[in-house]
Amino acid sequence: MTMQRLSQRSSPVRVGLLVGLSVFVVVGLLGALGRLQSTENALLSLRFEVRGPRQVGDQVVLVTLEEGSVQAADGAAPWSREGLAELVRRLDNAGAAVIGLDLPGLAGNVIPARSPAEDELLARAMRQHGRVVLPIVIREAGEEQRAPGPAVRRFALGEGSVPRPRRLEPGYLAAPAAALTDAAAGLGVTNIYPDLDGAAREAPLAASWGGLVYPAFWVELLRVHEGVPAGEATVRGRRVSVGDTTFRADAELELLINYVGGYREFPRLPYRSVVTQSMAALRTQVAGKIVVVGTDLAGVTTLLRTPTAPLMPGVEVAATVTENLVAHTMLRRVPGLTGVLLTLILALLVGSLAGRSGPLAGLGITLALLAVVAAGGFGIFLWGVYVPLAAPLIAAALTGGVLVVNSASLSERRRAEAEARLQSRLQAIAGIGRLVNSSLDQNQLLVEILRWAESEIDAEGSSLLLMEPDGEHLRFEVALGERADMLKDITLRVGEGIAGTVASTCEPIIAQDVQTDARWSPDVAYAIDHDTRSILCVPMMLRDRVVGVMEVINKRDGSFTEHDVQLMQVIGAQSALFLENARLYSALSDKVDVANEELRRANDRLEYEVARITTLVDEMADGVIATDEADRIVIFNNAAERMFGVPEERAMGRQAVTVFDHPGLTDLFSMPLSPHGGSYETEIVLDEAEGQVVRAHIALIDQPGQRAVGKCAVFTDISHLKELDRMKMDLISFVSHELKNPIASLQGSCDMLHDRIDLSDERTARLLDIASHQSRRMQYLVQDFLDLSRIEAGQALELNWSEITDPEALVRGAMALCRGVGPEHHLDVEVAGGTPGFWADRDKLEAVLINLIENAVKYSPDGGDVTVRVRPEDGGIVIEVADQGVGIRPEDLPRLFRSFQRIHDTSYGRVSGTGVGLYICRHIMEAHGGTIDVESTWGEGSTFRLHLPLRTQSPEPAGPPGREVR
User: pLDDT confidence of 145, banded at 50, 70, 90?
Assistant: First the structure.
């Protein structure tokens, strides 16, 4: 209740800020009392778990004395002085930079040497290496206390005391034997003090005993590694300096440990591996590195609980801390004031935002800010920066929770009030609805509405004014009360009097005493001689536009209230809507009459179009058959009757596949058209004996935005075209055969003249050469037509196989026979080295090259390079003809290799040709067992490729010898 009263008296933002500040104080007290530490520890563990294992540097190596090493030991145990001496010597020979023996048993002789000679054996190995660090341990009180000797005190950082929890007050300082201490390069405390929950989250950089401050074991490893003399590391306040490196710690001189991951995720070498593997292999693993040696054996090693593992050997923790210091990967704390400011800012921010919002919005804001802070804290954690999140998150959650509960309580109370108001308005609307349903006459309905309003509000009179079309005047439409009929002829200017003011401002007005209201204009009241004491006037709104004004006069019992205003607004809105509906109904009736007339005319036009289309279809020379979605015939014109000999009466309404006996027609109507893009075209032989052939084109009938509703097939009789094609091919075959012998004689005559006449006359030689070349071109042209005749007749091309030993000579001979090569064209041949000889029909292959080269020249009107390349590829021969001409459009590529198909494009003019060259080239390549393809870019040129199988001998008995290379 106190929160609700505060919310009612103060602004939502102020309430939210007060709540946030109060929560901040409470959370601060809890933090000071240590009540948030367990939550903070859980959040730190969660961050480690979400982050997962991290990448470890290569400067620290862990060597473990684990169960396998103990079982594999032949003589002394691995942790004996003899075993450790052997280990130190091996690591020394392998080039280890620093060796840290993290074996608490060496401190205080928990595992004593059997004789001084054993200590001396280990000490000798340590002195030989010169950079071995040993542990010192602060043991529990109650055991035998011995003051450390001078050899231990020389490693102290100075005088002083480092604070620690009272329950961890030390008993005595345990150090290794004197022989080992003298040989050590460093001594360091290995104690780690777990938190209250028993988890090791922080590692000390120094510890105090007997008034002296001793460095931690891992600090000594770093000092020896950096070459800083013993005792020259310093402690000043919360800073520990080792040479040029300074670490900022907390009040207990501790750093947060940045764990690598779970148990055994730190890189390690088993003891048995170190002493058994080759020195070369060991050197690659430890050379130049800090080696931390310790036990990982149940019952011997110290096991610690960490944020990343339930139990972890103490030596693995020590190696992790050493890696943190050496590689500077420790977790850096933000200053304590940062956490306090973050808590304060977050509590106030949640209070400010959630305080002004509803319950759901406040909850969403709180959760969003919690997610942002948690994500931000985790993101910073990935960069090695630790921000305490328990206090900020708890403060934000408490602030948001308090404000959400308070907002929900206020919302529930407001909801109850709103529900009461809604019930009142619903009753008003229901009353108006009953009135609307009771009459269709506009004036009668408005009168009933005003009477109902007077009854509900208990007023003496009422009136309704409508806006004139000019938008500047109001006219009394309906009025009730004494002398109401006298108002019919009165109009008011917008802005004049209370009604005019309501029309201009669109706001309701209550005048409890009109005589003292400056907006009151008494002219109307005087005109009808009516005593007006009070008035309630509301606008009639329709889509932000005033269409009229309603007013009730002189409430009989008391004064007009806000509830009266709301009720009149509901009545005014419903009345405006009724008037608009009446206007729209009248307009709609007129439009319906017009639409009916237009529909009648449209039906007449449709009947005319249907009759016209039916006549056109019936009179078409092509057969037309259409089916519905069930494949039943719905159109079967006269041409289809004559073409297929089926009466229309027998075809209509039946499925197409049951009407025809011809397999080509049944297949056509039963095949799916979707894989063909919705349409398909083919040729069907109806009567092979009579030579009757039709071209059939079938397509789906689609409705926009819907699936296909049928098919339509058009059949064109092309029997006469097929006869013309046959006659054309017969003529070509006849002419080619008749020209073949005369041209062969002409070529032979040219060859004979070439051998018998004197060619010293340049003009004679040139004319003879022209005659020879042209006769050979005529031979190739005639051969093309003969090949075309064979192809059209379905006969295989005859090949005269010969070995092509010089491909370049073959290409240049073809170039010499090409026409249209001008000075603007440059022909070139490129034969890849190592191209072998191959077998082919030299004449036909030369004809293919001539065709491709001439095409390249013709379709390069501006000149450029035409290059023929020959190369071996995948057990075959590839011949490419590339030009820099106009190229081929993508839509024209599928038609390139068809007979009598030519591509015409006005962009480069008309090019002469028969349209059969590429068609014959394709069949020649297929006869050789090869292929031809093209790659072209419009505007940049084309490349035709011939793929021939590599044959090293003739595939058939040798025919006539091939002609010599030209």
Answer: low
What ranges in 550-645 are assigned the alpha helix state H? Answer: 562-619, 638-644
Q: SS3 for 297?
A: coil
The closest of 858, 886, 894, 869 to 942, measured between CA atoms, is 886
Buried b (16+ CB within 10 A) or exposed e, 669-679: beeeeeeeeee
Residue type, 132: V
What is the rounded distance in angstroms from the CA atom of residue 345 to the CA atom of residue 728? 95
d(CA 456, CA 637) in angstroms, rounded, equals 76
Share of the chain above pLDDT 70, in %: 80
Which residues in 308-327 are b (16+ Cβ under 10 Å) and which e?
A: bbeebbbbbbbbbbbbbbbe
Q: Residue 613: phi, psi to the nearest 5?
A: -65, -40
Considering only CA atoms, which of 40, 41, 45 is closest in space to residue 307? Answer: 45
Number of Cβ within 10 Å of residue 953's Cβ equals 8
Long-range contacts of 452-457 (CB under 8 A, 24+ apart): 452/571, 453/550, 453/552, 453/567, 453/568, 453/571, 454/480, 454/552, 456/428, 456/431, 456/567, 457/536, 457/552, 457/555, 457/560, 457/564, 457/567, 457/568
CA dist 532 to 456, 514, 548, 558, Å?
19, 7, 21, 15
% of the chain exceeding 90 in pLDDT = 13
User: Checking DSSP bridges between strand 290-296 and strand 98-101, what pairing results, if any?
Assistant: parallel
Query: Measured at the alpha carbon of residue 498, what is the angle toward residues 494 and 500, in degrees to the nearest 5?
Result: 10
896 in Cβ contact with 888 (< 8 Å): yes
What span, in angstroms and rounded, lies between the C-alpha atoms of 913 and 896?
13
* 377: its two tokens: 């804290």
Instruction: Classify 926 as helix, strand or coil.
Output: helix
Instruction: Give CA 206 to chain center in angstroms.
Output: 52
Query: In angstroms, rounded to a whole number, what is the distance separating the alpha carbons of residues 847 and 853?
Result: 10
User: At 926, which amino acid appears?
Assistant: E
The C-alpha angle with vertex 742 and arms to 741 and 743, in degrees rounded to 5, equals 90
How far apart, in Å, are the Cα atoms of 582 and each of 43, 440, 802? 68, 9, 99
Tens digit of pLDDT for each residue in 353-404? 887 888 888 888 888 888 998 898 888 888 888 888 888 888 888 888 888 8
Cα–Cα distance list, 874 to 806, 808, 929 (Å): 20, 20, 15
Q: What number of helices (H) and strands (E) belong to the chain?
A: 28, 37
Q: Residue 716: name the closest of 615, 771, 612, 643 by CA.
A: 643
Q: What is the DSSP letter of 240?
A: E
CB-side neighbour CA atoms (13 Å) of 907: 11
The residue type of 901 is Q
Burial state string for 373-404 with b = 16 or more CB within 10 A and e = fewer than 16: bbeebbeebeeeebbbbbbbbbbbbbbbbbbb
Residues 914, 695: Cα–Cα separation, whole Å = 25
User: What's at 412, amino acid-wise?
Assistant: E
Contact 90, 61 (CB under 8 A): no
User: Is the alpha carbon torsion for 810, 815, 816, 818 positive or negative?
Assistant: positive
Looking at residue 333, its pLDDT comes to 86
- The residues facing 801 across adjacent strands are 841
Helix, strand, coil percentages in the chain from 3-state DSSP, rounded to 5: 50, 20, 30
Query: pTM of this prediction?
Result: 0.47
Instruction: Quickly tell me which residue has 């073809």 as its tokens.
Output: 814
Please name the helix (run of DSSP H) or strand (run of DSSP E) that holds residue 87, with its range, or none. Answer: helix 81-93
Lowest average pLDDT, out of 67-81, 274-288, 306-320, goes to 67-81
Task: Write the DSSP symbol of residue 480.
Answer: E
| CA angle (181 as vertex; 177, 182 as ends), nearest 5 | 120
